[in-house]
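Structure request: Fibrinogen-like YCDxxxxGGGW domain-containing protein, Nannocystis bainbridge.
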Amino acid sequence: MTSATETGTGTETTTVETTTGTPTEATTAPTTSTSTVPTDGSASGDATSSSSLSTTTDAETTTTTSTTDTTTTTGTTSTTDGETTSTSTTDGPPPVCGDGQVEGDEACDDGNDDNTDTCVEGCQNASCGDGFVGPGEACDDGNEVDADDCNNDCAPASCGDGAIQVGEACDDGNAIDTDACLSTCAAASCGDGFVHAGVETCDDGNADDTDACTTLCAPPSCQDGIESGAESDVDCGGPDCAPCELAEGCEQGSDCGSGSCDQNQCVVSASCKAIKQAQPNAANGLYTIDADGAGPGASFEVWCDMTTDGGGWALAIRFAPAQGTFDFYSPHWTTVTVVNEALKSPTDTLDGKFQAYNVLPGGEIRGCMQHPVTKAYACKSYALPGTTTLLDLFKNTPVGSDIAMKGLYFNEAQAEKVKWLTIQGRTLAEASIAPMYIATGINIDDDQSCYDARVRFGLVLNNENNINTLNDAAGFGAQSYYTSGCDVAPGVDAPWRTPSGFAAGPMIYNTAGHIWIR
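Returned structure:
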């Protein structure tokens, strides 16, 4: 049988072990007994000594008693006949979270495992950031990241919370749509429909540059670098911007600096009138025009009068002040010949007939004559029955009288008719007769008698009340009667004539002059 007793107090434990048994082998001879006695006289020894007694006799068993001291922390263990009893002694049990008692390091202990109330796992007071959605919290993700779905104040991420989350370009925490961040948490931009204060002038939220607000978020401008407002091309054309250059876009002639728009593209000007319409402040001078636009005809230079009588007049014929060649029956009236084409200035003193006469269509004709004293030019202008070139006008208008239903006559008051004299410094008193018949027009000729008065463009006078026996003429290609007999062959100019001036019987007054078309 083995018996062990362990006794401990505080921090010390003493163990005594006793073994009693029968040896496996008998001893028949006397043996020597050895006894060891502690030096201090103690039978059991102290905590640091051991005592061993061994006795052997004949037919007796051997008993060994051993005592060993060990050290442990707490408790007493006793073992008897194979049974063990353990007892532990401390200052008190540790606190238990969940027992309903606030102990030790516990901040709270509500005795439950509900983490949605005011006391959460670990017996700590609920707080934002503990990872549990507690009272007053909409979320709690347990981190300090403000850019995720739950803010650091345990409120769900939302536009307007002042923190930028995924999907937001900005978040300034206000509902103002005129600053740099909209109430939708999108960055302010042109086209969002809100006027960014100090940055945009307007914002209509559309991509239409032809309305009052462009895609630049500003009103249309002739310097904005886009085709805006009523412009026909970028920063040109329309009623507000400068005319467009050649090959730029147009809707009508006035959109182009050339005054001509063909298939929505600015082309070389068709006329001086077209240029004037496109450029109201255009100056007098030489311009390149192309009368038939995209047609086969070549462009050419023409002198344009842009300032008098509304402007837009093209010089067609220039008459020398004396000894000119454009008499009534000159072939230049009805052929495509040109004269002194390179000398296009209206002030040149030589005759000139230009390409504008032959190919430039117009609806108005104007005759200008120089005053002999002041040297100033004054003019008479007329609307034509239709658009025509001057070549076609003089070639196709039958030469003759109103009685024969020939010639082209202008219907105007007598005071206006007489201006054909006053513009060249002449009066009715200088006529060869006291007139009763006064008429103005194109290709007028007395075909009722053998009198030789006629005019290509201007005024005729007669002392009868009709054209019969016509006497005087003033204007261009003017002739007066030479004799009363039929002594001048048909188609032959009478000796009393002037290319430009007043033929009053034998009195011939020459002056410089021009014919223009518009």
